[in-house]
Amino acid sequence: MSQSIDHLLTENRRFAPSPEFAAKAVAGSDLYDAARADRLAFWGDQSRELLHWHTPFTEVLDWSTPPFAKWFPDGELNVAYNCLDRHVEEGNGDRVAIHFEGEPGDSRSVTYAELTDEVKRLANVLTDLGVGQGDRVAIYLPMIPEAIASLLAVARLGAIHSVVFGGFSADSLRSRIDDAGAKVVITADGGYRKGRASALKPAVDQALSDRGEGVQATVESVLVVRRTGQDVEWQDGRDVWYHDVVPQAAAEHEAQPFPAENPLFILYTSGTTGKPKGILHTSGGYLTQAAFTHRNVFDLHPETDVYWCTADIGWITGHSYVTYGPLANGATQVLYEGTPEFPEPGRWWDVAEKYGVTILYTAPTAVRSFMKQGREIVQKRDLSKIRLLGSVGEPINPEAWMWFREVVGGDVAPIVDTWWQTETGAIMISALPGVTETKPGSAQVPLPGVAIDVVDEKGESVGNDAGGLLVVTEPWPSMLRGIWGDPERFVDTYWKMFADKGYYFAGDGARRDEDGDIWLLGRVDDVMNVSGHRLSTAEIESSLVAHAATAEAAVVGASDETTGQAVVAFVILKESFLKSNTADGLATELRQWVGQQIGPIARPRDVYIVGELPKTRSGKIMRRLLRDVAEGREVGDTQTLADTAVMSVITAQVR
Ligand code: WT7
C-alpha cells in the first residue's frame, strides 16, 4: 500500500515577523547558514556557547555504532551547575527563577540564589539517603518549586530521575518504579486541583506495598514534601519529611563533573504493549539542544522576559521547557499548580496578567477549550505584554491558530508551532520567530542543525506538495539514547522501518507544501483510507473546527462496505453558538461544510455531536476508542484516559 497521504486543505494566510520584532530577535537566518555549512561544528559551537563544560569536549559526535549515539563523548559537565550555580556566579543570583502560583492563591518567588541553595541542600540529603551516580529516583509531585528542585538535585549527583505524572494511579507508579529499580521516591502529601486537596502519598504507599510475586522492592526511602497538610500514613525508617531534613542539611555542595553521556532521566511514554517504555535521555547533548531551542525558538531575552510553559513536570515538555531549557538560559518563569478553570475560567489569564507574562507556551487542546468558552474571558484581562506564543502536542488547526494570535496575542504576537516528541527530547521543527514567515497550521521548517525528511515507504523523499512519513535523517544532540533496559525494543521501534537508510521514523504523517514547509498530519496509525485515498485526521478536523459552531473535533476511519473506510466525526460545539442556536440539522450542515471546504471524498459519513472527547492526561485525543464507538464495538481499554467516564457518555450520545 502506498504511504503517500492525500492533501486536501489549502491555507493562504501568511504572517511575516514585524520589523521591530525581527530587529531585536535572538535568532537570525545566519544560524541556518552556519548549520548548513557544517552541522557538527555548528552543534559544537552552540554547546560551547550555551553551556559550561568542566572538561571541554574534543569530539562532537561518535556515530560509530548507530543507532546508539554519543554526543560530545569526551566532555564532562554538571547539568545542575549549568542551570543554577553559574548564574549566581555570573551575578544573576537575585534574578527570579520561578514565580510560583499555587491553585489556592498562595504565591512565592524563588531567585536563582535561593533555588541553588535549596538544590545544594537537597543534594546533600539525597546523598545521605544513599543516592549516587547512576541511581534512579522516582519523582511524584505536584507543580511546586520543590519539583524543579528535585529534578535538579538528582541531576547534580549524576543520578537518574524518573518523573511520574501526579495524575497517574498507584498501579502506573508501581510499574514505573519497578522498571527503573528506583531507590528513593520524592513525593508530597498532596497537591491542589480543581479547588481540592488531592492526595499523592497514599498512591506511593500503595505502589510500594502491593508487591507482585517475586518483585524485589528497591525503594529504601520516601521523601515527602508537605504541600496540603492533609493526613498521611507514615512508615518509620522509610518515610522522611522534606521540611525536617532539607533546611537543616549542609548548605555547601560542590557540583562534580560527569561524562556528557551520563544518563540524566528516564521518562515513560505509552507504547503499543502494556510494558512501560522508559525513554532514556543523557546529559550534554540533551542540555545543548534544550537550551538552544528554548533560547532561539522562544526568542528569550532573559533579563526582561517572563516565560510561562503550562506543561506539567510529568511530561517531556515539563522537563525540557519548564526545567532544563529555561534554567540553563537563566530565564524567569511562571509555575502554576492548578487547572486553567479554577476558581473560574479566567484563572490562567489572571496569572498571565499578574506576572506580566511575555512568552506563553501551551497546547492546542487548551487553546480550543478557551475558544469553546469564548473570547470575552481572555479579553477581560490585560495581556498586552505577551509578545510570543508557542504551541505543542498536536497539530494546531488554522482556526485555533488564528484565534490564539488574535485573542491572546493581540494580533501581533508571532506563533511558533513546535513539533517534537518525548523521544526527540527537544524541538525539531518550528519557525524561528524573527526569521520565518508563519503559516497558520504548519510547523514549517526543521531547526538549524536538524535533518528532517518526508518519505515514501521505501525511504525516498516525496518532494514538495506531497505527503508521506516524517523521518529524522541524521542524529541530533537531544535524541533518545535508548529504552531503559531494552536496547532491542529501541532499535525495533524507531530504526527498523528505514534500517538501510539509518533514518529515525517518528510515527507521524506529514506533508511538504509547495514552499517546502512541513504540515503534520497526525499519527500514521490514525490515517484513514477512503475509496483508496489516504486521508489525514488533522485536515478534516481542521475543516470542522473552521465552522462557526464547532469548538473541537475528532475524526476516525470506520470500516465501510462501499468505501473501505468512512470518515466519522465527533464534534463539540462552542458555548457561544449554543446560546443562540440549537444543534438541529447541524450534523448535516457540518457534513456539507467539509464536503465544500475539502471535497466530497472527505465528507463525513456520520457526524456525532458530543459533550466531551476521550483524551489522555496529556491532552491527546484517543482515536482508537472513538473508532470502537464508530464501528459499534465494545469500547477497549480506557485506563489511560484522563476521565474514564467519558466513553460511556459518548457511547450513550451516539446510540
Ligand atoms: C507526538 C509526540 C513534544 C512534546 C509533547 C508531546 C504530536 C507534538 C506537535 C505539533 C503536530 C505534534 C506528534 C508527535 N505532536 N507536537 N507541533 N504538531 N503534532 O510529546 O507525548 O511524546 O508526543 O505528539 O504526533 O509524534 P509526546
Q: What is the global morphology?
A: globular
The CATH superfamily of the domain at 527-654 appears as ANL, C-terminal domain
C-alpha-based Rg, rounded: 24 Å
Q: In total, how many beta strands?
A: 30
Structural commentary:
The protein has 655 residues and is of the alpha/beta class. The chain has a domain of 128 residues: GMP Synthetase, Chain A, domain 3 (2-Layer Sandwich). The chain is built from 22 helices and 30 strands. The strands form 8 sheets. An 8-stranded mixed beta sheet has the order 12-11-8-6-7-14-15-23, sandwiched between helices. It has a 7-stranded mixed beta sheet with strand order 5-4-17-16-18-19-20, with helices on both faces. Strand 6, helix 7 and strand 7 form a beta-alpha-beta unit. Helix 3 crosses helix 11, helix 6 crosses helix 7 and helix 8 crosses helix 9. It starts with 18 loop residues before the first helix and ends with a helix. The mean pLDDT is 94. Bound molecules: 5'-O-[(S)-butoxy(hydroxy)phosphoryl]adenosine. The site of 5'-O-[(S)-butoxy(hydroxy)phosphoryl]adenosine (WT7) has 20 residues, from helix 12, strand 24 and strand 25.
